[in-house]
Design a protein that fits this description.
The chain is an alpha/beta fold. Helix content is 36%, strand content 15%. The protein is built from twelve helices and 13 strands. Strands 8-10-9-11-12-13 form a six-stranded mixed sheet, sandwiched between helices. Strand 9, helix 10 and strand 10 form a beta-alpha-beta unit. Helix 1 runs parallel beside helix 3, helix 6 packs across helix 8 and helix 10 packs across helix 12. The chain is elongated and about 110 Å long.
């Protein structure tokens, strides 16, 4: 009987090589990918989990341990030579490009914390098993998505059958399992989207947008500010605020906070936000037909289309949000614009204004 020799070999190899057994009467799906037809069949899963080695030597504890140690030594030698001891999902299915650099990052128990948990990037991580058919089907799609997301979102793959410590931490039960590690790395979310390349890329970019900081509201004091914050944007929101003597610092900051709240809400859009004090950009005011009815006034300008729309009503969060939503949905009327040069002025120091002294 093999059982006592198998148990003896497992005890001797403890901490060096893992020894397991599968009851094929109960778990036929585990053995079927490997063409198991007779019992007992012994296979050794070494560096290449997709291609286990058949054990054909004596069925004694001594012979089994000798064979296991030989294979372990071969793995160590390969590692010393710079070869990987485990494969990514792409290589496990044979879809990786020979000699080419893969976009999917190979994750392990050793590097997971450093690369993923300590990162400021969004990560999509696939937990796979080399024998898993769905994982093999996903591999070329996963690699293609990783290439499209290069420089934006990190894409990794972890062999859960080898790096069981990390897989166990996230309670991985089936393969492939995809988790999204966003801003809160301690609480990754399960990816429930489609498994096409476009589905994966779109979901990753949406998560990236969620993590992105909202654009800041800048004071428009020069052409350089316009060029940086507005010129290349789909839309630029421009507010003309009352003179500091009329609103005071508190009033001005409240207006800026209202604009910032909209910037936060619409941060996924490629929009810019600037403000100027009344009459500081008189040519721009004239071009967008504001100022005559008082301040504050606000317009949204499309620099690329040379058109603008004006907010009608009070400058508050509700009105501004509705105005921008209508613009986003092309339900706001616009007018043609000839954009003038932006005047150069002084930045606000954040303080209340000082009234000019009266001469006696």
């Amino acid at each position: 009987s093999l059982a006592p020799e198998w148990s003896k070999a497992a005890s001797a190899l403890k901490g060096i090589v893992r020894v397991g057994a599968v009851n094929m009467d109960e778990h036929q799906s585990v053995g079927s990918p490997y063409g198991i037809t007779g019992f007992p069949t012994i296979k050794l899963f070494g560096a290449d989990k997709a291609s286990p080695v058949d054990y054909k030597n004596a069925r004694t504890a001594s012979a089994i341990t000798d064979f296991a140690l030989q294979q372990a030594k071969a793995t160590v030698t390969a590692r010393l030579g710079g070869k990987s001891s485990s494969s990514s999902s792409s290589s496990s299915s044979g879809s990786g490009s020979a000699g080419g650099k893969q976009a999917v990052v190979e994750l392990t128990d050793a590097n997971f914390a450093e690369l993923v948990l300590n990162s400021q990037d969004v990560w999509l991580v696939e937990f796979f098993a080399p024998w898993c058919g769905h994982c093999k089907n996903l591999a070329p799609i996963w690699e293609a998505a990783a290439k499209k997301l290069d420089g934006k979102v990190k894409v990794g793959a972890l062999d859960a059958t080898v790096h069981s410590s990390t897989a166990g931490r996230y309670n991985i039960k089936g393969y492939p399992t995809i988790k999204v590690f966003g801003a809160d790395k301690a609480n990754p979310s399960d990816y429930q989207g489609g498994r096409s390349e476009n589905d994966i890329v779109q979901a990753a970019l949406e998560r990236l947008e969620e993590m992105a900081p909202p654009p800041e509201v800048h004071q428009l004091v020069s052409q350089a500010v316009w060029d940086k914050e507005c010129a290349s944007k789909q839309l630029c929101v421009v507010a003309f605020l009352p003179d500091i003597l009329d609103s005071g610092a508190t009033g001005r900051n409240n207006y800026i906070a209202t604009i910032q709240a909209s910037a936060d809400k619409h941060k996924s859009r490629s929009w810019g936000y600037v403000w100027a004090e009344s009459n500081a950009q008189s040519a721009l005011e004239q071009a967008v037909n504001v100022g005559g009815s008082g301040y504050p006034a606000l317009v949204a300008i499309s620099p690329k289309k040379n058109r603008y729309a004006q907010l009608i009503g009070a400058l508050n969060e509700k009105n501004l949000s509705s105005f921008l939503t209508r613009l986003q949905n092309s339900k706001e009327s616009t007018a043609a614009l000839t954009l003038p040069a932006i005047a150069t002025g002084a930045r606000w120091d954040g303080k209340d204004g000082v009234p000019p002294s009266e001469e006696l």
